[in-house]
Amino acid sequence: MSDVRNLPAELTIYAVRDAAEQGLGWLSQLDADAGDAPLQIAADGVEEVDAAGVQLLIALSRSLAARGRRLQLLQPSPVLQRALACLGAAALLGDAAPAASETAA
Q1: Would you tell me which CATH number, out of the four given (3.20.20.80, 3.30.750.24, 3.60.40.10, 3.40.50.1220), belongs to the domain 5-95?
Q2: pTM exceeds 0.85, yes or no
């Protein structure tokens, strides 16, 4: 699977159901593909995120791990980076983790 998916602008309790359905669709497509490529998701458009959105990303990451794959967030927005860091889920940033100077602001 080489297609890059996109997270919605809003990952809050009010929108997480739709995002979860979208994530399930991504997992179904991934199950049909052979290989172990990561699920690449563009995260630069995320403008709002709360604990429900972070929880969804954690669940997606765990579902991928159970399939021998991983989640790769591409260019996570500053809002998403802060939310993941605040809620103890910064590991989801992987290679996209901000430098210490970026989080100090």
Answers
A1: 3.30.750.24
A2: yes
